[in-house]
Design a protein that fits this description.
The protein has helices spanning 5-59, 63-72, 84-94, 99-108, and strands at residues 77-79, 111-117, 120-126, 132-139. It has 140 residues and is α+β, with helices and mostly antiparallel strands. Strands 1-2-3-4 form a 4-stranded antiparallel sheet, sandwiched between helices.
Length: 140
Amino acid sequence: MLTSDEPAQGDARQRIWIVTGSVAATAVLAGFAFFLGAWAFDTRRVLAHETRLQRLVAQRPTLGQVLQGLADEGSPLLASPASDDELRAVAELHGRARMAEIVEKGRRWPTKRVFRAGDMVYFIYFDDAGVMSDYVSVAR
């Protein structure tokens, strides 16, 4: 025989499961939204730096112009590696994620400079005439 409390207990359990499921689904969706937002922000940030450096290469600035321009905006010079070994050491410290590319490009160009630009590190390469010719940017 059913008592009057049994249907109420069943309804309460059902409500608890519904609320628990709703909270869990909301948490999963919120987590996904935050993940997606962080991914989009990071992608935009990296693309902004890449676009900036691509435009800079197209303008063919001299070493002095690049040094002055980056210094003016608060992007300090981190290193001026003169040899492959020095570049490799700087790449290990600041650009480990793209170390092979940094060193390979460094072999092609006689002058290299490394800058910290916000949360990125720029490895900038110059030709024999001191004109910016290539770059690698790495997120810190």
